[in-house]
Specification:
The chain is an all-alpha fold. The protein has eight helices and no strands. The longest helix has 41 residues.
Length: 210
């Protein structure tokens, strides 16, 4: 497993590093080669606004998803994207199907294979959607389109129920902490992080008492 993790770190860092380079190469080319630069003020303003809206996910997602995804799965998921609505549910469903516990060696291998298969399927579907997606969306009734905002919460609810059934006490603790944190008057940016940290601390404390 040590060799597997070494190779996961090597290829994970390499592929994500290449993606970062390719991602920033186009705006750098447009800005400093073609001279199409919007100025630093709108760039910084946009960055601050974006960070204020979803910056918590930069810290919350790697911490909260890692137990299910493992090292190799984490690299795969953050490379392909769609973690919450594709990679994580696929990994959790595959682990549940074969009886692999998250955080174990078997669980990590299963998650890696599931994410790889899901990514291939996602690319196949994306090709079809890119070609005909706008037409398909246009023929869907607006009443149904209005339900799209509930897709991600429904996925997270299903994943939560799947793990809560295995340890109902911890599921109840996580739900209680989540409700409490959302009711107290703190910035939305901190709610996700605080919820995760509190839940982990409480559950670890209970495990130590056992």
């Amino acid at each position: 497993m040590y060799t597997f993790h070494q190779k996961s770190h090597f290829w994970g860092r390499l592929t994500i590093g290449l993606v970062i380079v390719l991602t920033i190469s186009l705006p750098l080319y447009l800005s400093f080669v073609l001279g199409i630069h919007p100025g630093w003020q709108p760039i910084i303003t946009g960055l601050i606004a974006y960070a204020a809206a979803i910056g918590y996910a930069w810290f919350m997602e790697p911490i909260s998803y890692y137990p299910t995804l493992g090292i190799s799965g984490t690299y795969q998921a953050f490379l392909t994207g769609n973690i919450a609505n594709m990679c994580l549910p696929s990994a959790a469903a595959a682990q549940n199907a074969v009886g692999a516990e998250p955080g174990t060696k078997k669980g990590e291998i299963v998650a890696a294979l599931a994410i790889g298969a899901t990514s291939l399927m996602n690319m196949a579907i994306l090709i079809f959607i890119i070609v005909s997606g706008s037409y398909l969306v246009s023929i869907i009734p607006e009443s149904i389109q209005g339900t799209f905002i509930y897709i991600v919460p429904a996925i997270f609810g299903g994943i939560f129920a799947q793990f809560a059934l295995k340890k109902p006490l911890y599921g109840g603790i996580a739900l209680s902490v989540g409700l409490f944190v959302n009711l107290i008057p703190i910035p939305t940016f901190f709610k996700g992080i605080i919820c995760i940290i509190l839940t982990i601390i409480i559950c670890i404390s209970l495990e130590k008492r056992k």
